[in-house]
């Protein structure tokens, strides 16, 4: 039978949608049927025993026995289920159970009426024990109780708050069982003492914590490594960590005494790692790999306690300002790191808080180093995902902490860059992946600044954060791609491919805006490239960028007189307009060019090709000196000219020395081993240029030390002056008050005795009126 055109069109355009729609409708119907069955099953499970059994269950049979509900069932019905197994009534024991806490007695009738979902023959304590196996069901029962009978719920809240606090302490309930199993081996007297200890600690639940209780916990943890005491001290530590929060009232303990607060913090931070090490010993290999018994029952039991304690420490790190407490917290956190590695989300939060402590310039150097040690330990013992998270947080903290650079915080920023660069070498594979991504971001910012010719597009590149990032990557590749280290290991570092992109981005940033105002930024970047070239033996052409500075209009035109102080090039990337065309700025730029040119050539002072490398620069420098010393020249800066002329002289001397040495060699230029071994036994400071540069470095170090001492003295005098000014203001205020009192005394002295009595009576009357 031929298929019609309309049928073909329907099959092509609409058949697929119709089939899909029918399937969706069928799924919706199936889901609704399943929901109905679930509701029926739930209602049947929650129904009372008498409702499920019906009348037949209570009606006696002919033989005098009650029908148990199985007699009328077929075999298929029996295996299909849908019935409730009758519960056997438990005989009530006459002997009281030891080790259990006594509950407030509740009459059976009230319990049966209020706990309507529970069977009639189960008392309140039994329902509580059953709820320990099903936390969700327990929460639902409590929520239903609050709605059905709020008076009874209020009674429980006042007399048995621990029942309602089940959600908070349910995860820690198994620790009590562990403690009990440990105490079974102790003698009866000691076990009795532990029971008293537990009673006292739990009697203080929800109350003000005392120092005596904390000391009992401390003694128990020190002597027996008690997990129960550790649980209590961790709960108290949680309350101490959230002491100033709005929700601090919901925690089990409250702390208002500073001594108790200090005792809780010190005890927790010092003893919790020791107790954990006692029960769950960590085995660490020489390579840094650790082994924690995570599959043991104790570890599974302690998991909620570890999470709670780590979150409390994370919160404490974000709110602490005391240096000693911060260091103690970081040391304790470093000890428990092996136990929390499996909690990825918690570890990421810890990494963020520790990295913020490390990057905060307000913290002292010791505190920041303690935070760095925690991050380094995480990198050593963690897996690749955690390592990547650590490196990302460290880089973000570095960029955030380098937003503003002054003479006061430059040392802290350099500390961050030096310590962070060490982390990238612990796992070079992960270090290369993260480093390449961050360097690529810097390259994208540079490309955007070049392509978008807007007024402020350059500001995304010409800022301290960008410059410090480039300098940081230069430190990373210089630290881990060192040529000597690679020669010893026999293989190149995985981070060596990062050298090329770092150098290319840095050179591009250097030439983005080649104006005199950004000469300080150029000098900062040249120092970064010199570090790379020195460590990795990579030739980077830096001499043209420095000669370009000498040939600029800023250095050729006559300077203006100025009384400005010398510009600090180590903490400056942009000179203000007040410095342009001034003698101070010109002298500073000339000194920087001379220093950087000498530092560049000192890298190749023993190289066999040094004469050919230095010849073009020597020619250009000679031309510049000749042009500056002409009488017709408008700028005759004798200071800079003498510095450049001295440098040219040393370069020529070193070239002649190299030519003399290489005239005695017996290998051809294509002999790579001979070229690389040329003058290898000679120290760099024994060369003509090396001796000159060593002397220049020594004089600069002495000058920098003198300036640093002068700055510290000036800061000290300023602080003393401010303190004296405050004292003087307070003294003047005190003297003014004394003068007013003396004036009142003089007025009283001018009166007769009767007038004085009258004045005193009036004052007393006024005071009585005020009291009324």
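-> sequence recovered:
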């Amino acid at each position: 039978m031929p298929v019609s055109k309309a049928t073909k069109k329907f099959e092509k355009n609409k058949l697929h949608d119709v089939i899909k729609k029918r399937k969706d409708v069928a799924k919706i119907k199936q889901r609704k049927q399943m929901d109905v069955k679930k509701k029926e099953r739930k209602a049947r499970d929650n129904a009372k025993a008498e409702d499920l059994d019906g009348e037949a269950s209570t009606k006696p049979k002919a033989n005098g026995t009650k029908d148990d509900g199985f007699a009328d069932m077929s075999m298929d019905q029996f295996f299909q289920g849908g019935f409730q197994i009758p519960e056997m009534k438990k005989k009530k024991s006459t002997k009281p159970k030891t080790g259990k806490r006594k509950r407030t007695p509740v009459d059976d009738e009230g319990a049966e009426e209020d706990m309507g979902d529970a069977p009639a023959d189960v008392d309140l304590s039994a329902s509580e024990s059953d709820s320990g196996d099903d936390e969700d069901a327990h929460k639902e029962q409590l929520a239903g109780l609050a709605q059905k009978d709020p008076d009874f719920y209020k009674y429980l809240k006042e007399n048995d708050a621990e029942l309602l606090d089940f959600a908070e302490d349910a995860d820690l309930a198994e620790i009590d069982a562990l403690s009990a199993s440990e105490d079974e081996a102790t003698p009866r007297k000691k076990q009795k003492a532990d029971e008293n200890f537990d009673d006292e600690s739990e009697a203080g639940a929800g109350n003000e914590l005392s120092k005596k209780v904390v000391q009992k916990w401390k003694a128990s943890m020190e002597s027996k490594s008690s997990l129960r005491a550790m649980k209590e001290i961790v709960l108290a530590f949680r309350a101490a960590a959230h002491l100033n929060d709005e929700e601090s009232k919901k925690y089990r303990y409250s702390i208002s005494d500073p001594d108790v607060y200090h005792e809780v913090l010190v005890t927790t931070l010092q003893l919790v790692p020791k107790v954990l090490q006692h029960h769950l010993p960590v085995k660490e290999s020489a390579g840094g790999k650790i082994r924690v018994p995570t599959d043991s029952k104790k570890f599974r039991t302690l998991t909620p306690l570890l999470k709670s304690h780590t979150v409390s420490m994370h919160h404490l790190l974000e709110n602490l300002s005391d240096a000693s407490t911060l260091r103690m917290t970081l040391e304790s956190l470093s000890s428990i790191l092996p136990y929390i590695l499996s909690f990825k989300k918690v570890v990421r939060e810890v990494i963020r808080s520790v990295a913020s402590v490390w990057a905060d310039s307000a913290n002292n150097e010791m505190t920041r180093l303690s935070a760095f040690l925690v991050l380094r330990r995480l990198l050593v013992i963690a897996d690749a995902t955690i390592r990547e998270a650590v490196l990302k947080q460290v880089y973000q903290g570095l960029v955030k902490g380098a937003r503003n650079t002054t003479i006061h915080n430059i040392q802290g920023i350099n500390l961050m860059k030096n310590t962070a660069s060490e982390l990238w070498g612990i796992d070079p594979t992960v270090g290369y992946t993260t480093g390449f991504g961050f360097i690529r971001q810097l390259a994208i910012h540079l490309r955007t600044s070049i392509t978008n010719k807007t007024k402020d597009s350059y500001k995304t590149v010409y800022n301290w954060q960008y410059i410090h990032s480039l300098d940081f990557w230069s430190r990373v590749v210089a630290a881990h791609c060192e040529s000597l280290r690679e020669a010893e290991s026999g293989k190149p570092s995985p981070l060596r491919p990062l050298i090329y992109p770092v150098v290319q981005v840095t050179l591009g940033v250097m030439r983005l805006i080649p104006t005199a105002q950004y000469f300080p930024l150029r000098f900062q970047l040249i120092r970064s490239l010199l570090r790379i070239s020195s460590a990795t033996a990579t030739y980077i052409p830096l001499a043209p960028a420095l000669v370009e500075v000498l040939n600029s209009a800023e250095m050729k035109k006559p300077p203006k007189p100025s009384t400005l102080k010398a510009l600090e090039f180590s903490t400056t990337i942009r000179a203000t307009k007040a410095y342009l065309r001034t003698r101070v700025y010109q002298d500073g730029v000339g000194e920087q060019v001379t220093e950087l040119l000498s530092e560049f050539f000192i890298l190749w002072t023993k190289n066999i090709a040094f004469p050919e490398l230095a010849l073009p620069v020597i020619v250009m420098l000679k031309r510049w000196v000749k042009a500056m010393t002409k009488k017709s020249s408008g700028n005759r800066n004798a200071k800079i000219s003498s510095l450049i002329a001295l440098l040219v002289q040393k370069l020529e001397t070193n070239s002649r020395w190299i030519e003399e040495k290489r005239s005695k060699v017996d290998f051809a230029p294509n002999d790579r081993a001979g070229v690389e071994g040329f003058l290898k036994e000679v120290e760099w400071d024994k060369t003509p240029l090396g001796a000159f540069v060593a002397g220049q470095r020594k004089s600069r170090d002495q000058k920098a030390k003198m300036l640093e001492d002068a700055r510290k003295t000036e800061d000290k005098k300023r602080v003393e002056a401010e303190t004296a000014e405050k004292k003087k203001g307070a003294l003047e205020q005190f003297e003014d008050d004394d003068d007013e009192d003396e004036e009142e005394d003089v007025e009283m002295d001018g009166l007769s005795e009767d007038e004085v009595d009258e004045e005193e009576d009036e004052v007393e009357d006024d005071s009585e009126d005020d009291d009324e």
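DSSP finds 34 helices and two strands in the chain.
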